[in-house]
Amino acid sequence: PPPPPSFQAEDGIRDTRIGLVGSEMCIRDSIVRSLLLSVFSLLLALSPALAGSPDREREQRLADQTVDAILDGEPVFLTTPDNTRFLAIEMPAAGEPGRGAAIILHGRGTHPDWSQVAAPLRTALPEHGWSTLSLQMPVLAKNAKYYDYLPVFPAAVPRIEAGIRHLRDQGVERIVLIAHSCSVYMSMTWIEAMGDSGIDAYIGIGMGATDYGQPMSKPFPLRDIRVPLLALYGGRDYPAVHRQAEHISTLLPELHPLSAVQMVTGANHYFNDADDDLVSAVVAWLDTLDAAAAPQ
Question: Which of 12, 123, 158, 287 is most buried by its number of CB atoms within 10 A?
């Protein structure tokens, strides 16, 4: 059977102001996103203070070590408009047709095949019909904290866009963005800069985690997210993550009707020894989106 229809924010004529439908909207959105990214990249180039510099040497060391150790999937190197070359790992869905693709963003200071959250999701989701593309996010020194990373968040924007473009070039129609821990902040910076029209759903894992004595610099732009959102966290996650989950719960009536907040009992922030529970929670929520989008 054909794959389920997209679970974008609305079906049919989504832009009632000018009546664009289907491929017309895809073309319009693609042009708008290209212009936005060009402007964003130009601003970063003209004003380096807007974005800090990732530790490129450390990224290269991580890439060298990661590529040699990949057992499932294939390494690819993507490029941003400023010619930053970074590692990604892609893995096709098992069987045809696929349901779509998941872009996976790892936690702070690690790599796209990190054993906590990133690797379990990127290797398990293909068994459920989702291809995966796990991206290398900007990193700093090992001892860098939340506030150290604040200037680096904008550097993630072109990388997420490069991942989306890579999948679109392959003909992927449905994209889910999955971010863990520090990458939640990076993905929210992307949403602020580019909007969420490039994805069909968003999953934030461990949203709101910071370091002791370093509260969030600003709220997440949750009301700007038009696609379905899942806030997933562990029962033994950090107090700040629990507070953020409670906050998102109060906002659910204002978000996409398929949005949800879910706790995995017994799991910590990194889902240690809870890989299966993590994958099951993600797959079950994605299944609900497919069920809602299926013809009645």
Answer: 158
CA–CA distance, 241 with 259 (Å, rounded to integer): 17
Strand-pairing partners, residue 65, are none
Sequential DSSP letters for 87-120: EEEEEPPSSSS--EEEEEE--TT--TT-TTTHHH
- The CA distance from 163 to 142, in Å, is 25
SS3 (DSSP) at 125: helix
C-alpha to C-alpha distance for 123 and 238, rounded to whole angstroms? 26
Name the pTM for this structure.
0.85
Q: Which tens digit of pLDDT belongs to each residue from 112-167? A: 999 999 999 999 999 999 999 999 999 999 999 999 999 999 999 999 999 999 99
Where are the alpha helices (H) located in 136-238, listed in sequence order? 146-149, 156-169, 182-194
Query: Is the confidence at residue 43, as pLDDT, over 60?
Result: no
Mean pLDDT of the chain: 88
Radius of gyration for the alpha carbons in the chain, expressed in angstroms and rounded: 18
Residue 130 has φ and ψ, to the nearest 5°, of -110, 120
**First vs last Cα of the chain: how many Å apart?**
16
Letter for the amino acid at 47?
S
- Show the tokens assigned to 191: 């949403």
**pLDDT tens, position by position, 245-270:** 999 999 999 999 999 999 999 999 99
Matching residue, tokens 């939640």: 184
Q: Across the chain, how many H-helices and E-strands are there?
A: 8, 8
